[in-house]
Amino acid sequence: MSTSEETPKPTFVQPKPYKVDLEAGKAYYWCACGESKTQPFCDGSHKGTGIKPKKIVVEESKTYFLCGCKYTHNELGFCDGVHRKEEGIRKYNEFLLKANSSLKQENEAALNEQSELKNKLKAAERKQKIANIVAVLSTALIAVGIAAKFAHTYSKH
Ligand code: FES
């Protein structure tokens, strides 16, 4: 049986934790959705993802390791080593496949653009050739006109 509301999945960020210095008593918000541009902390980008940040307040000021893959089972977002386990490795593979596929698409788009530019360049070269021929013909016509005028002038004398 399928449910209409599936648990939202975070976006994989990196296959290792973030090493951060946290101050005792200060509130931090760990990004749980993976969309923040200020990892590992929330920047509000989770809006619409159905995922909310986790509030962290530590009792001791020291260095901590916050989850970077976003698949930790720790309730506050601390690294639990899942990125080295089968589940984390599977998510990393999915992330790499997705990244590879979007790179492929970008590459194809760039190749199409390059091909269009080549066609435009060929068309411009053709126009340039025609313009050159017209210029040569115009010069020749002018020369013929001048020659005819001279011939006419000399024939009068
Ligand atoms: S931006 Fe990811 S939880 Fe807020």
UniProtKB/TrEMBL annotation:
The chain crosses the membrane at residues 130-151. Residues 93-127 form a coiled coil. Residues 17-52, 53-89 form the Iron-binding zinc finger CDGSH type domain. Signal peptide: none annotated. Its cofactor is [2Fe-2S] cluster. The keyword Protease does not apply. One of its GO terms (molecular function) is 2 iron, 2 sulfur cluster binding. Keywords: 2Fe-2S, Coiled coil, Iron, Iron-sulfur, Membrane, Metal-binding, Transmembrane, Transmembrane helix. Gene3D superfamilies: CDGSH iron-sulfur domain, mitoNEET-type. PANTHER family: CDGSH IRON SULFUR DOMAIN PROTEIN HOMOLOG, CDGSH IRON-SULFUR DOMAIN-CONTAINING PROTEIN 3, MITOCHONDRIAL. This is Iron-binding zinc finger CDGSH type domain-containing protein. It comes from Phycomyces blakesleeanus (strain ATCC 8743b / DSM 1359 / FGSC 10004 / NBRC 33097 / NRRL 1555).
